[in-house]
Amino acid sequence: MSQESLLSELNDRSREVFRRVVETYLETGEPVGSRTLTRALSEQLSAATVRNVMQDLELLGLLDSPHVSAGRLPSQRGLRLFVDGMMEIDSVTQNDREMIDQTIGNDSRDTGALLDRISTALSSITHGASLVLMPKHEAPVRHIEFVSLAYDRALVVLVFADGHVENRLFTPPPGQTPSSMREAGNFLNAMAEGRTLSELRGHIAREIAARRSELDALAADLVESGLALWDNGQTDPRLIVRGRSNLLDSEAADLDRIRVLFDDLERKRDIVEFLELAEQGEGVRIFIGSENKLFSLSGSALVVSPYMNADRKIVGAVGVIGPTRLNYGRIVPIVDYTAQLVGRVLSGRKG
User: Fold this and answer.
1) For residues 347 and 267, what is the distance between their CA atoms, to the nearest angstrom?
2) Residue that finishes a domain, picked among 203, 232, 261
3) CA–CA separation, 258 and 166 (whole Å)
4) Which of 17-21, 322-326, 330-334 is least confident?
5) Is 58 in the same domain as 184?
6) What are the pLDDT digits (tens) for 119-176?
7) DSSP E strands: which ranges in the chain?
8) Is the torsion defined by CA of 184, 187, 190, 192 positive or negative?
9) 173 and 287 assigned to the same domain
10) What phi and psi values does residue 227 have, to the nearest 5 degrees?
11) Is there a single domain that holds both residue 131 and residue 242?
12) Is there a single domain that holds both residue 220 and residue 252?
């Protein structure tokens, strides 16, 4: 049944009971009992009537009952219905707005420092873990070099035409030699001039397919590894994570779940998927529980919004992750405001 059909199944009484259950759960994190709801409802109903309504909502898959007599919690489906069709979005408070605005600072040309401050502020304001995906550096590439450090470690050095330099450690394919690394570097440099990293990636993929017979197999593997590095590195410096300790503040925190989330945040390989999720549409997106494809933690929620450059191209994203009982009505406008602010600031810069 679609969300629209499900909403139409609910009469006014069922809607109010459901809304009160969700709002109380988001506030307290605890199962909600019929007696608690009876005191909060606008309509005078008996506890028995409220229990019957809650049982009907459970049959519809909107509520869960962790224990027979422990009250009800919204299910993942119920939270999704509430967020999409019933949630009231607050305005960003003046205090929150000022805290975010103050992150701009005087070193406005230092994108990394700016986004680090924004990530810290976002975590502090929302009491969740904040995630900021920095924009990729899109100046033309001047030079690429691979440096062997050990049998299982190598360094790739990227020098851009605007003077920006990136160094990244990675694990090379087995059997690499200094000679194959030089060959891979020469191959890349022969076609890198005047191309951005994105342009170079597509061009080299086509070149590798057309000229594979001309490349030593090990060098070809290294080229592909080097290309993939900026998309699928084990640790991506483009991702800023702040405030993980906030996830432990809840009295009802499930430490095993939190540990799994911490592990995911530390070692997530496909971090570019974070941006891909945001690219599916402008504005804030909310991922609840197993809808959250980024993390193995099913009990988490992610509120994320992309930000754009001056050309209206999505170049990064900001978000907040926490338990499913996030205060969505407050956090959604904060994430949205932050993403718009980042876009405006970046659009006003050169390079």
Assistant:
1) 31
2) 232
3) 32
4) 322-326
5) no
6) 999 999 998 888 888 877 678 888 999 888 888 888 888 888 888 777 777 778 778 8
7) 63-64, 73-74, 129-133, 141-150, 153-160, 165-170, 239-242, 285-288, 300-308, 314-323
8) negative
9) no
10) -65, -40
11) yes
12) no
